Amino acid sequence: MALQSYRTLGIAHSMHHSDTRNDEKSVNTDGGIAKSIDVVIVGCGPTGATLSLLLAQCGVSTLILEREKSIYPLPRAVHFDDQIMRVFQTLGVAETLEKVTRYNPGMRFVDPNGKLLLDWPRPAGVSDNGWYSSYRFHQPDLETVLRDQIQKNTLTQLKTYVDVCKIEQNDEQVNVTFKDRQTGVPVCVQAQFVVGCDGANSTVRQHISESVEDLGFNAHWLVVDVLLNQDKPELGDFTIQHCGGDRPATYVRCPGNRRRWEISLKPGDDLDAITSEESIWNLIGEWLSPAEATIERSAVYEFKSLIAKQWRDGRIFIAGDAAHLTSPFMGQGMCASIRDVSNLSWKLAKCCLETNISDAVKETLLVSYQSERIPNVREYIETAIRLGALIESCDTEESLKQAFADKRESNKMKSIVPSLGAGLGVGCKDYQGIWFPQPMLSSGQRLDDRIGQSPVLLISAALLSEYLHQYAGRELDLAVISVEGE
Ligand SMILES: Cc1cc2nc3c(=O)[nH]c(=O)nc-3n(C[C@H](O)[C@H](O)[C@H](O)COP(=O)(O)OP(=O)(O)OC[C@H]3O[C@@H](n4cnc5c(N)ncnc54)[C@H](O)[C@@H]3O)c2cc1C
């Protein structure tokens, strides 16, 4: 089965810390391709761009091969969470992103009469991760910030308008062939690893396995971004899920004067007709008139919920939409993708750079990527499926409550924070696979800025002397930081 989602069915209307630690490996040559590349990344969406920057933080050189000339222009992600902002902090772009993002106070589910069915508020203060638990953003803004960072980094090279067409591996390396889309000239490069961050219709996934698990959600939605001509506070700052009714719909308060409506389509809808400007104004006419805003862009997507069964074959990996797809009702597709590469990057870096690690330990590291990530992403996808079904079902308050009866005492919902699946963790199962908090240190520095993008053992001095000889990751050469004085 092909893993195709977010397929744009009706094309949109477009209406109107740099790391120099490894300079000898620098790949920013004079337009040519460096001879020595550690990792080739296929696709420069948010997943591939983030991966290249995380690897550069570890001293790993990357070549990103991207099919398109420029960033994807149609409406996609508008939300990311505190875990993701923490990854962006590691990349040194959090402060820049803060300027173009907006704290999101939460999501409300209402029935066709406007009655509140389910409330999903987000705390007003920063979370244990050191950032707000929910941000609104514009995906092209994020991708521009990431690409600017890639330009500045001496270990990352981006080649656009090229199509990866062939991948072959042996025990020593992977050979990647790509074609320049302008000249048609094929070029072959070698790397230690290849990661396919090439989206829903991934070519790299086809090299690994086409086998996917379909979690069962499938629906067509029209997505419209508008730019308000002037402020319209009555639209509100909360995301509103208009459940049931003739056409369930989502309203999103994006940063600046941009507002988003996502509208459920019916099987008999004529896609050309429904995406016309007149039709769009009809569909959102309950909330906004043409005098109040301009339609910036719109697209029809087929939302699916799929997980690839195999995320790795030897030296070849997939991450992001290439590995999983979700309906966007929790705003977690890209978030899950960033978690993928946050998990994979340091493991690949250890395998690329450290000669004192045995092959067996390398294998344990690489195998843990899929086993840790799939259960985590599955929980987000399944929750999104439940929310999507409720939004579309036209059902009552009672059915909303039933769907979450085991998790909620009232009509309030909390964000889920799934653990990682079985992987590298050893010892107490209660703490295994849990996202470690990010306290502010006594120096005023955030924890991650102190420890960097590398595994670390945080331990008290007393425990350190007692247990250091036992800890399992010795071969990984973990940094050890004593918590006293921090
Ligand atoms: C309507 C909508 C709303 C969404 N809302 C949210 C949200 O609020 N929050 C959230 O977290 N997620 C959301 N998502 C999901 C999010 O947009 C995606 O998960 C994210 O863009 C995936 O990033 P990616 O880098 O994995 O893939 P992509 O962004 O698709 O990038 C893949 C890249 O690979 C390139 N490529 C493909 N094949 C090749 C090849 N053979 N050679 C070279 N290059 C190739 C493509 O050109 C593309 O640039 C939403 C999606 C949609 C459609």
Summarize the helices and strands and which ones pair or pack:
Blueprint (H helix, E strand, L loop, with lengths): L6 E2 L28 E6 L3 H12 L4 E5 L12 E3 H9 L3 H5 L3 E2 L2 E5 L5 E6 L12 E3 L2 H14 L3 E5 L1 E8 L4 E7 L5 E11 L6 H6 L3 E17 L10 E4 L6 E5 L4 E7 L6 H4 L2 H7 L9 E16 L3 E2 L2 E3 L5 E2 L7 H21 L5 H35 L3 H7 L43 H5 L4 E4 L1 H7 L11 E4 L4
Parallel strand pairs: 2-3, 2-12, 3-9, 6-14, 12-19, 21-22
Antiparallel strand pairs: 1-17, 4-8, 5-8, 6-7, 10-11, 11-12, 13-16, 13-17, 14-15, 15-16, 17-20, 18-19
Helix pairs in contact: 1-4, 1-8, 8-9
The chain binds flavin-adenine dinucleotide.
CATH architect. name of the largest domain: 3-Layer(bba) Sandwich
User: Any ligands, ions or cofactors bound here, and which?
Assistant: flavin-adenine dinucleotide
**Kindly, what is the distance between the CA atoms of the first and last residues, rounded to a whole number of angstroms?**
51 Å
CATH homologous superfamily identity of the largest domain: FAD/NAD(P)-binding domain
Roughly how many Å is the radius of gyration? 23 Å
Residue windows where pLDDT falls under 50 for at least 5 positions: 1-24, 26-31
Helix and strand content put the structural class at alpha/beta
| CATH overall fold name of the largest domain | FAD/NAD(P)-binding domain
CATH class of the largest domain: Alpha Beta
Helix content: 25-40%
Strand content: 25-35%
